[in-house]
Amino acid sequence: MIIDKSPLPGDEVNIEPEDAPPSYDASVDVRPPLPQDEKAGSSSAYSTQTITHNSSSFAVSPKSPSTVSSHKPGGKRPSSTSWFNFGPSARATKEVRATIKGLLRDLVKQADAQGALGVLESCADACRTYDLSLSALLQERSIEGHTPLYWSIINRPSPESSDTSSLTPTSTQGSSERDRDVVMALLSHAAPLTDATVDDIRLACLHASDHGLFQRLRRSPAFAPVSGSDEILLGSTVPVDDVEVEDVPGDEAGFVVHFRIPMFQKRMRISQEIPLEFIAKGRLWSLRFLVAKESDSRLGYQHMRAGSWVVALSLLPHSPPTSIDSRLVIEDPRARTAQSPISPSTSTSTSTSLPSSQSSSGPPTSLTDAVEGMVQQIARESEGPLAWRDKPKPKIELRIKRGEQLTAPTSSRSVYHPIIVVPLEEDVRANSLQFKGCPYIESDGSLLARLEARLVQPGTDCIIC
């Protein structure tokens, strides 16, 4: 039953139909009006825009009405997620990658270093534009199973002078021109190098028998970074270890390696290892001065008393097996100056300084002449080059020999492989290398040594060709 209620105050206001809000059913089917831009005009039409980026066109997705929020005039437009993609497309990046790899393949075949360097710089610019890693491309084994660095070493023109690692200061002349070659340019763009890339570079130097380039690469921090302690000891400009290899005339199996090791004693006491590497007779060799530790894997299967100073000789990966008979020779620096004979001018001046009574035959005629003659004789003996206090000590000779063949490890990470280890304490003079004031150390703290070696058959003197 419906009961009519009496009208309340305010019910007498009449609402016109056109002022009433729409019903729910009517509002569901009505689309909101699109936002209008007074400056740009109507936004009812949306066209696809195209952005050209480095001669490549990339389509930009059109804006959708669902992503645009309506706003009141004079109000603040709310932020919306952009669908624009201004970077290069995946297809364009892939094409640029393939183009750069093709250019690198042609680059390592060129003999023109200047032209190759220009191509390399263009590749570097393209990699920066398309967010590619030129270092990764240079270290890919994309050319016949090897990296572009390998082939640049194999095809590198022979230097005018093969002696690129001389111990004399004149060896640095022309180094700026040599450093501009393709190999060093590639190496600068490829850093930092992976272990696999370093191994491939070593193999290239071995196949090219380029000991001079190998030593130059070892002086590069990208190829052979020094230890933290050596970096602090030697400073920012690292005085590298000089290594020079010579063949023995008339002996196809013999060779001599000269070493100059800066700050020998300090580096042995602090870093406890000085690694030296070189190429000789188609093999990669490692000669290291070490301070032995407990259960030291650096010594292979051999065990030495902890704290002992030792020298170790071994082959590096990719080297064919061989037997070797060698000796490490270290001479007293004074021996290089004590061998010079007395000049004729010295003998002449000595004879003219004698008293008149002594310049002729016969005994002195007075006591004064006799005393002056004795004083001058003592002075001549004390100033002589072979005075007892300046007489050089005998040279150090450490025999480094192995009856069985040396074999190379399968990789640089291999721990146990044949190594010839000789402790310095086996020789009294060699053991003095660890003491302060050792006469075999140069005045600047360097150690000069040479390795005299010959490849032999086990138990025989046959030459290994």
List the helices and strands and how they pair.
Blueprint: H1 24-28, E1 49-53, E2 56-60, H2 90-107, H3 113-129, H4 134-138, H5 148-154, H6 175-178, H7 182-190, H8 195-208, H9 211-218, H10 228-234, E3 242-247, E4 254-261, H11 264-270, E5 273-280, E6 283-291, E7 309-315, E8 323-330, H12 344-352, H13 356-359, H14 367-382, E9 396-401, E10 420-423, H15 428-431, E11 447-456
Antiparallel strand pairs: 1-2, 3-4, 4-11, 5-6, 6-7, 7-10, 8-9, 8-11
Helix pairs in contact: 2-3, 3-7, 5-7, 5-8
Characterise the protein shown here:
- This protein has 465 residues and is an alpha+beta fold.
- 29% of the residues lie in helices and 16% in strands.
- It has 15 helices and eleven strands.
- A five-stranded antiparallel beta sheet has the order 3-4-11-8-9, with helices on one face. The protein has a four-stranded antiparallel beta sheet with strand order 5-6-7-10. The protein has a two-stranded antiparallel sheet with strand order 1-2.
- Helix 2 runs antiparallel to helix 3, helix 3 packs parallel to helix 7 and helix 5 packs antiparallel against helix 7.
- The longest helix is centred in the N-terminal third of the chain and has 18 residues, at 90-107.
- The protein is elongated, with a radius of gyration of 41 Å.
- The model is unreliable at 34-82, 161-176 and 341-361 (pLDDT under 50).
